[in-house]
Amino acid sequence: MNSIPFVRSVSQASRLQPASCLFPASRLHCVLLAIAFIALASSGNNIRADDFAAEVTFREQLQPLLRAYCYDCHGVDDGEGGVSLEAHSMAGDLIKHRDQWMRALAQVRLGTMPPADGEVMEPSSRTRMIDLIDELANAIDCVQNPNAGKVALRRLNRAEYRNTIRDLVGVDYSLANDFPGDDVGYGFDNIGDVLSLPPLLMEKYLDAAEAIMGEAIFTPPPPALFEVDRDAASLIGADKFRGGSSLAMASNGTVSLQFDAPFTGTYKIILTVHGDQGGDEPVRAEVASGRRTIPLEIPENDPTEKTVAFRLGKGKRTVDISFLNDYYVKDQVDRNMHLHHVRVEGEELRSTFVPSSDLPTSHKVLLFDTPGNAKEFRKSAAAVLGRFASRAYRRPVGGSEMQRLVGLAESVHENGGTFEESMQVAMQAVLVSPYFLFRVERPREPSDDGMMPMINQYELATRISYFLWSSMPDDELLKLAHQGKLRDRRVLLEKVGRMIKSPKASRFVNNFASQWLQLRNLDIVQPDTKIYRGFDDEVRDAMRIETLMFFSEVMRNNFPVTELLQADFTYLNEPLARFYGIDGVRGNEFRKVSLRGTSRGGLLTHASVLTVTSNPTRTSPVKRGKWILDNLLNTPPPPAPPNIPELEKGPLVGSLRERMEQHRSNPACAACHNMMDPLGFALENFDAVGRWRTKDGRDLIDASGSMPDGTTFRGIDGLRELLATQRNDQFVRCVAEKMLIYALGRGTEYYDKCALDKIMAEVQSHDYKFAYLIAAIIESDPFQKQGYREP
């Protein structure tokens, strides 16, 4: 062994020794451990000083706690619940088996482990074990450029597609709701990994693009076609006789036809005619409309098209076609005119003659530049399509992309299409492009020193807008991106503040809050209305609106996030207030209502939440407790073990609380139910549709609860106190992680702990204010950078 590396390694190891290694009793152990690591390093293994420090921490600090409280039940060979913690003998094993250790960490954090019949763990020991497991299992250097993570290519979901079309084109395409449903991952329907593109959806996109642009840009109807009807045509001063499919005029006279002109402009009248020659003159005719008359000479034999043009006003118009020079000598000469059919159509650029007041707003906005003549077509097309495609793609459109779009428009124009029709077709192509349907980000590689690359400013603008508005960036965001100002903290915070107060922020409320709080399940729950009278679809809708307006109030006014749990106000209309038993609210309009002096306050007392966490015929402390663990504390319990009967199907008797206690007597059930049930029972004063009660049938409600760690509380007030004050950091971190998942479009990983720690530090320094949570997420590395996906 080379002596210099050995000396350096021993010296480095000594600096990393924990306090226990400074005492003689443990010094020998630490030295032996250091020698073992040095031997591994010299054998070719890449052992870092950080690895040695982690190993010392594991053996000297965590393992003694595990021996005292865990190994008796979770040994090498007989680990209860399939968890054998003692089998993991090195610090690195906590990373290899991170999922198992995260489950253990959740149990320790909640106080369900050690079990009630196990060794009593002092609060200081519990805190120490939580910190050590978290540190070792989630070992990552937050200083040395942690992985920012990578999001799968994300398709716009149904809500994002509809919003983007509305903001881009000016058309509310409600049929987007008929698209195939979006799959859900990590609780949200905007997760890149699950947003596939099945063939049926691609067909829907093609149909939608045609319908949307047909509504956005006005083009006159297809050319009107009049087949001459011998019985319906008005024939004045001439004899008519049947001559196959044509109208034969055997003497001088006039055929009168009417049609509805859809706009004021120039129209072409196209006649298909032929004549029976007789005498020295050709067949002569004239076409008249309004004050203008145009003469025609009609050739004999084969039918021929003859075209004349008139400037006509919008509305019902008459076209007179007259045969002028009849000539007849019995059995010698017979000059006649045959009219086969008439077609009326507007000339090229016909929509330019439509008064501006008759055009839809979307038409005037999209076609801000129109050509004055054929030579200006390409210039106008490039201007219109350049702006449209750049906004649709959320970035400047490339030169080759512009050439293809303008070339497509020119091909439509060369085949007889108007400027408007050419723009319609080219814009349809934009709406089915992957650059529109997907949020495309240019792939990047870390730098040579491992630094995660920043996404560009346009990609950042897109992430921000779809996070807060579920739609494309507005012109101001794109301008800031173009100017490179989106990473200027002052500019960013000002823009985010305006975005939160914008009406478009209601989309964030509808999409994030509805999914986080599971309000979408309100559509499918069916409380038994024979038991819960007064519940109907009107009340169901009002429940949802209450919660969304309440969430919006907290967000827009930059209240602390904890206000979601303990606010003393809500939003009610008369039907919902009557349902709650609150007086003084009149009318169907929702308004802010004080809840002081009532049993209500915060999300946990909203009927929407209480209803979606109940059964049709009774409350469910289990569902309500699980909902709190999942959505407010981010510590979901593991799935129920197999072969455990449902509460109603088990041999249980007594009140609901007594039956639940009997259910928990099964050791397979106790671990999870000891977490869920106390939380759920704290809400028992609210029935299955969220109305206050003091009895469940004949039984008085007992809303007291005791957590496995010994924490006790009573009713909704005690539960609010527990969550909003004692566990406020855990609640806010839960909201932060749920919001980060929604913002990124991917599930969080262990390496996102660094970002979440920074987010929490920023939010804590600003008293948990809501706007600072949103800003901290936007400024976080996972949001600002592009990392990589770990295998």
Automatic annotation (TrEMBL):
Coiled-coil annotated residue ranges, if any: none
Domain DUF1587: 154-217
InterPro entries linked to this entry: CBM60_xylan-bd (IPR031768), Cyt_c_Planctomycete-type (IPR011429), DUF1585 (IPR011478), DUF1587 (IPR013036), DUF1588 (IPR013039), DUF1592 (IPR013042), DUF1595 (IPR013043)
Domain DUF1595 residues, every copy: 381-441
Domain Cytochrome C Planctomycete-type: start-end pairs: 70-117
Pfam families linked: CBM60, PSCyt1, PSCyt3, PSD2, PSD3, PSD4, PSD5
Superkingdom of this protein's organism: Bacteria
Domain Carbohydrate binding module xylan-binding: start-end pairs: 271-351
UniProt domain DUF1592: residue ranges: 455-582
Every DUF1585 domain range: 709-783
Domain DUF1588: 600-696
Protein name: DUF1592 domain-containing protein
